[in-house]
Specification:
The structure holds two protein chains of two kinds. By secondary structure, chain A is of the alpha+beta class. In chain A, 69% of the residues lie in helices and 7% in strands. In chain A, strands 1, 2, 3, 4 and 5 form a five-stranded mixed beta sheet that branches. The longest helix of chain A is centred in the last third of the chain and has 79 residues. Chain A starts with a helix and ends with a helix. Chain B has two domains: 179 residues, PX Domain; 205 residues, Arfaptin homology (AH) domain/BAR domain (Substrate Binding Domain Of Dnak, Chain:A, Domain 2). Chain B contains nine helices and three strands, in the order αβββαααααααα. Chain B has a three-stranded antiparallel beta sheet with strand order 1-2-3. In chain B, 34% of the residues are buried. Classes of the chains: A alpha+beta, B mainly alpha. At the A-B interface, helix 14, helix 15 and helix 16 of A face helix 7 and helix 9 of B.
């Protein structure tokens, strides 16, 4: 018994320590570990270089000003930039002060000792900026218009200060109902974090009232750091291209939405030459963590809300979207596998072409030798063809599917918001009921001031209940409109992409015909 | 196996090998039981050496191997290129895939499963076709060879209506065969070391050795390429199945596209890869001829040395002389027939390459054109909606 108690004490001691580790530091630790693991797959020296360069040449300055990378170490501004109050709280186990940093710098390239800060600071100033060109053409007589946005290649401005994307807006007609846009054609520079900032602003304004806000492209820490450090290889080029087209699609979807287009934030994003820094978009910032925590809380809540669905339409639609989600994910996986296999096919074809060329060389019958060399050439061209087709597979089909998977998540989110609105309404109704009962009880007691207070509260609550009901009806109406618009857009989108994809397949096949028809006479010429 | 018998009946026999009406051989039927394939060898002949003008016998793969090995071991045929033995029927790949399909059945829709099953059955059929063809070609090469067609064992193979297993290799003989393979690698050393007096053979040797390694490489790469192509075709099956459930209009085209892609892959396989594979084996057979000749040359040189030694010692001179004469004769005979064989071999090879390359190119064009019409139809359909 005694020994048990002793061990119990010991246990209690260690759990006490554990309990001291509060929620935030635990999450921070986990995210650090996952980041580190990802970076470990990398070149450790380069990583160290980033940290080193960052600490001694930070470029964490306002987004619109680009050339501020060469001013001396501003380690204080580094931390002012990022409101790290959360981390300040969490620093019982992990401290943020200088001795730790010095330790990091002197210990060489061993990310293992990294406290939480460095990864954050790496991300902070280094967002990719995108040139986006917007072309607005208005159709006659009306609200419907065609906006064309072109996102051009990113421009790397200064070391570590990040790349800027150019945004070019064009408006052909003048004096239109699109008076929201001030100029005909304009071009601005934007960073990736600006895009994320725009999305988070729109999400906070519109999601909870039922508008389907298109989700922003995802962050990729490994890809980003590779580009920033200047690793000029195949994968980083592909990454840049992938991001460029993702940003283009994102903006196009956003401006196609009639309500979002009129939003002042969107206008500011598209027009103003300078944009206030979007701070809350870093992956490891306090805001980011808050978002993660909120997401987790939402997931739990969702399971506990039991809504009496009076409207069959909603129930049906929700089920539909669930199914659509599953199917799209499956399709996306298949298409990704297709891309992978086609790339493999291209590699194998190239290998075969080389081998056939060697065979042709060692063949002593001249005509056959020539034919074999020709075969090798044809196969080489075909390999290139496969490569191009794989790219088409990817950029047209696979990315579209990825976008839609994320969009459906946004749609589901909107449905969830409706449930939350309903919950709020129900809650205030229940509260009202309770207050009425309490008031009824108070009627029999002799407390006139308390009675008055109760009556005031009831009046307030009645207002709230009415507001709740209105909100719920509003969000339901909005969702109906949004969903039908979404469906229309989806069908149009898919159709146009699939047509483009099929056309690319046709082109490939026609090229194949050309190559083989050119080869045939060579084969026939063998005597 | 309805498809297989249909294919067997409608196939056109390869003209170049079976144009001698005195001895026509084909394999009209084949049965697959578990691991074993039973071929029906059908012969039509005007030769008096056979008891009947037309007859069929059931044969297994092992019987073919027995025939091949017997021919190789016959001293008289040392100067000939013995056609390469047909490879063992290999159903491993489709069987494995079938197994995997069975395991993954739960995760697929019924339609997807059926399509994959169809695809696998087609693959199975393709392997079957391949093995029948290869066995047939082996027999037809023998029947079209002036000397080999008259071989007694060959006649027994075609005619003997009982089971051949009594004549087949027992374990001891198999061991002997194993040993022979090791000797062969020693031969490679001999053949590269021996000094060649004849220009023709010197050239052939260099050429064949080099060509063999190149063609082996090409065969491997071609196989890899066709396998990748098959993977792409399989992906289209999954995609079409999912699109079907999404009930988009475009699902049907993917259904057909996968079929075409799959067929391209299997046609490519049959033409290009098989061509390369066959000639790789054939070149090995030609190399074997060169080995045998090199060995004969080595024997001749040994016998010369032995004769000189005997003359020195003045002992057993007549035997040594006779031995030397024999060796010389053998060597000359080998050289003469070897030259003939190698020349005709080259001609055969060029013709076969030409035929297959043309057919392959024509098939590619046909499939691509089909694809274009198919795809164009779908695009028009989608645009008109």
């Amino acid at each position: 018994m005694q020994s048990l108690q002793k061990s119990g004490d010991y246990k209690g001691c260690s759990t006490g320590v554990l309990l001291k580790l509060n929620w935030y530091s635990l999450v921070a630790y986990l995210t650090t570990v996952s980041i580190i693991f990802e970076q470990y797959l990398w070149d450790g020296v380069e990583l160290f270089y980033i940290f080193y360069r960052h600490f001694y040449r930070p470029a964490s300055l306002p987004a619109e000003d680009v050339s501020t990378n060469s001013n001396g170490p501003k380690q204080d501004s580094l931390f002012d930039d990022d409101p790290e109050d959360l981390f300040a709280e969490a620093t019982e186990e992990v401290s943020l002060d200088s001795p730790e940093r010095d330790v990091l710098l002197s210990d060489g390239p061993s990310p293992a000792i990294t406290p939480i800060t460095p990864p954050t600071s790496v991300i902070t100033p280094q967002s990719l900026t995108v040139p986006v060109s917007l072309q607005i053409e208005e159709e006659e007589g009306g609200d419907s218009f065609d906006i064309h946005i072109a996102v051009s290649d990113p421009e790397k401005v200064g070391e570590f200060s990040g790349t800027f994307w150019h945004l070019r807006d064009k408006q052909d007609s003048s004096g239109t109902s699109l008076s929201v846009f001030k100029q005909g054609e304009f071009s601005v520079k934007r960073r990736f974090s600006d895009f994320l900032g725009l999305h988070s602003k729109l999400a906070s304004k519109y999601l909870h009232v039922g508008y389907i806000v298109p989700p922003a492209p995802e962050k990729s820490i490994v890809g980003m750091t590779k580009v920033k450090v200047g690793k000029e290889d195949q994968s980083s080029n592909e990454f840049v291209e992938k991001r460029r087209s993702a940003l283009e699609r994102y903006l196009m979807r956003t401006v196609k939405h009639p309500v979002l287009l009129k939003d002042p934030d969107v206008l500011q994003f598209l027009e103003s030459s300078e944009l206030p820094r979007a701070v809350s978009t870093q992956a490891l910032s306090s805001a980011g963590l808050l978002r993660m925590v909120n997401k987790a809380a939402d997931a739990v809540n969702k399971m506990t809300i039991k809504m009496n669905e009076s409207d069959a339409w909603f129930e049906e639609k929700q089920q539909q979207f669930e199914n659509l989600d599953i199917q799209l994910r499956k399709l996306h996986a298949s298409v990704e596998s297709l891309v992978c296999h086609r790339k493999e096919l291209s590699v194998n074809t190239a290998l075969f072409a080389k081998s056939a060329a060697m065979l042709g060389n060692s063949e002593d019958h001249t005509a056959l030798s020539r034919a074999l060399s020709q075969l090798a050439e044809v196969e080489e061209k075909i390999d290139q063809l496969h490569q191009d087709q794989a790219n088409a597979d990817f950029y047209l089909f696979s990315e579209l599917l990825g976008d839609y998977v994320r969009l459906i998540t946004a749609v589901k989110g909107v449905f969830d918001h409706r449930m939350k609105t309903w919950q709020k309404w129900q809650d205030s109704q229940m509260l009202l009921q309770k207050k009425r009962e309490a008031e009824a009880k108070l009627q029999f007691t002799n407390k006139p001031d308390k009675l008055q207070q109760a009556k005031d509260e009831i009046k307030e609550l009645e207002g709230k209940v009415q507001q709740g009901e209105r909100d719920f009806e509003q969000i339901s109406k909005t969702i109906r409109k949004e969903v039908s618009r979404f469906e229309k857009e989806r069908v149009k989108d898919f159709k146009s992409v699939i047509i483009k994809y099929l056309e690319s397949l046709v082109q490939t096949q026609q090229q194949l015909i050309k190559y083989w028809e050119a080869f045939l006479p060579e084969a026939k010429a063998i005597s | 196996y309805r498809n297989l018998t249909h294919w067997l009946k409608t196939r056109s026999v390869s003209v170049d090998l079976n144009n001698d009406a005195s001895l026509l051989i084909d394999i009209p039927d084949a049965l697959c039981e578990r691991d074993k394939v039973k071929f029906t060898v059908h012969t039509k002949t005007t030769l008096s050496a056979f008891q009947k003008p037309e007859f069929s016998v059931p044969r297994q793969h092992e019987d073919f191997i027995w025939l091949h090995d017997t021919l190789v071991e016959t001293e008289d045929y040392a100067g000939l290129i013995i056609p390469p033995a047909p490879p063992k029927p290999d159903f491993e790949s489709p069987r494995e895939k079938m197994h995997k399909l069975g395991e993954g059945e739960a995760t697929m829709t019924k339609e997807e499963y059926n399509k994959m099953k169809q695809e696998l059955e087609a693959e199975y059929l393709a392997v079957f076709k391949k093995t029948v063809q290869v066995h047939e070609i082996f027999l037809q090469r023998l029947s079209s060879h002036a000397i080999l067609s008259k071989d007694r064992n060959f006649q027994i193979f075609l005619e003997y209506d009982q089971d051949l297993s009594v004549r087949r290799k027992n374990a001891k003989e198999m061991f002997g065969g194993f040993f022979k393979n090791m000797v062969k690698t020693a031969d490679e050393v001999i053949i590269s070391g021996i000094k060649e007096v004849d220009d023709f053979f010197e050239q052939e040797k260099t050429f064949l050795l080099d060509y063999y390694s190149k063609i082996k490489d090409s065969t491997a790469k071609a196989e890899k390429m066709t396998r990748s192509h098959k993977n792409v075709a399989d992906d289209y099956i999954h995609i079409s199945a999912t699109l079907n459930t999404l009930s988009a209009d475009d699902s049907t085209f993917y259904l057909r596209l996968y079929k075409v892609e799959g067929r391209v892959a299997s046609d490519q396989e049959l033409k290009l890869t098989e061509l390369l594979r066959y000639y790789m084996r054939d070149i090995q057979a030609a190399k074997d001829l060169l080995y045998r000749r090199a060995r004969a040359l080595a024997d001749y040189e040994h016998s010369n040395k032995a004769l000189d030694k005997a003359r020195l010692k003045s002992k057993d001179v007549p035997q040594a002389e006779e031995h030397q004469q024999q060796c010389l004769q053998k060597f000359d005979k080998l050289s003469e027939s070897g030259k003939r064989e190698l020349t005709s071999f080259k001609g055969r090879r060029v013709v076969a390459f030409r035929k297959n390359l043309i057919e392959m190119a024509e098939l590619e064009i046909k499939h691509a054109k089909n694809n274009v019409t198919l795809l164009q139809g779908c695009i028009d359909l989608l645009k008109s909606n």
